[in-house]
Structure formats: structure tokens, C-alpha cells
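Q: I'm writing up a methods section and want to include an example of the input and output format. Could you take the sequence below and give the corresponding predicted C-alpha cells, formatted cleanly so I can copy it straight into the document?
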Amino acid sequence: MESSDESLRFELLPYSTRLRNELPTAGLKGDVGCFGSVVVERCPLYQPLGKGMDTARLSGPAFPETVFRGKRRSGRPSLFRAELSVGERPAELRFNARALRKTARVLRIAYGSREYVYSSRGLGKANVLERGDVRVSIELGRQIPPAALARAGTAIGAVDSVDLAMAIVLEEVDTDVLTLGGTAMSSPFALLQRFSDRAE
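A: Here is the clean output for your methods example:
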């Protein structure tokens, strides 16, 4: 499925579930225009059998199942030791964690013949996935009581379900290291999370 060249606007809402005898889940869900419903879920609890890795999984009737797996950081999968598959096909991820220039601190994704660039405008600002003339931007949206925030998304160009799936699943990934400021600010929290994980 593919959208027209007009911009597509959508909203993703945070959710969490905790059922007896089941692992809790948390993530985002919403309706993405003509593409319909989508859900991204992850387990917020540290799982010892995961060997320090976490997973975010996206699903929806019009979307290919998209799975991002990476080293647990700040309670989410991160870009370290990361793997991404879309519709059971692996994507190649390239990221230079030591880059100093802002333009170099991006995540590059190769998926078949497609080449994507994923970047963050900074803490609290938009995350952007680009492929040629296609651009999917997701930023913090309205407040959801008591203390959560929705995500406001905008897609421009002939965007399809693969473009959207990649951009949306990455909202449940710790991508702070895409900015120098985010790296500096998130490091103490990541260390605390590491100790917290080991204590669970």
C-alpha cells in the first residue's frame, strides 16, 4: 500500500498492559490514515533470558511485521548490537557512535534496494526517516494524563507501509546517541538502568 504525494498526519498514543500470569507490555498504538491501525509493543521489564537484549515489535493489518532488537539501554532496545527485520527480511544498520559532526550522527538503513537515513533533531524534537523524496517525521505531541505524551507524525511523499513501519518502530527504541547532547544526558540514566536491571 502507498499513500498519495500529499502529506499524511497521524497520532500515536502510549499504552501499557499488565495482566495476571503474563508479562506486561508497553508501547504505542494508533491509526495511520489509509494504512489503518498499528501497534508497537515491548516488555518494560528486564528479562534475564534475553542476555541484555530487548525487542520492539510492530504489527498491523496493512503493515509488515517489523522487529527491532538491540542491547537494553534506559529500559528500551538501543542502537547497540542492533538488528532490524521488516516482513522477516533483515535490514542492514550502520551507525558511527563516535562521530562528532551532527550530520554524521545518523542511522543508515539499507533494506533491499532502499537506502534510508534516520536522524534526531535533538532531545524533545522530531525524529526523521528519509528515503529520496519520502520523509516521515515524528515528534512529541499532546500530553496524555497523568504524565505521558502522544507522538505526532507527518509523512510526505509517496510513503508506503515499509517506510512508516520503520519510522514508527524506532519510536520505541533508545536513539539518544544520535545527538551529542542526548548521549551526554542519557549516559547516567543508562548506568542507573543497568544497575536496576541487574537487581530485578
